[in-house]
Amino acid sequence: MPIEIVVYDPAWPARYASEASRLRAALGDLAVRIEHVGSTSVPELAAKDIVDIQVSVRTFGPQVAYQDVLERLGYYHRPDPEAAHRFFGLLDASGRRVGNLHVCESGSEWERRHLAFRDRLRGDPQLCREYERLKRRLAPLYTDINEYADAKGEFIGAAQRPAGENAGPN
């Protein structure tokens, strides 16, 4: 299926807020922090119409403690080779993916990097526009979401580095 980038939807923050409320109620103390991440969390940034949420937990073990709760909410676990986080998807009634849930350990590098990237995009309109241009250029070239994500990796990595470490993404 082709990757579709759509114009910013002002409903994305409300979709996040609604889902975050469900997650908070279901996870209780298991969730240390729940954040809207990814492109849908950045005002005016075009994105895939999939809301990304990051849930920080104290520890990954045992995963069943939160996985069972998430599955009852309709999430499905998607195994990910990266050990730094656990990935879950959420489908709507038609089977279209409408949500990504990233579970990471509180205070981890994964948590810090994703929040830092979101905050850089929110605070730097030029970087935000560069990222949107990159996404629009790459989307028609890929049908595999992981390959598309990998293609954005260099830009994202450069944007996540502290300001003194590089001149920014090229």
From TrEMBL:
Which protein is depicted?
GrpB family protein
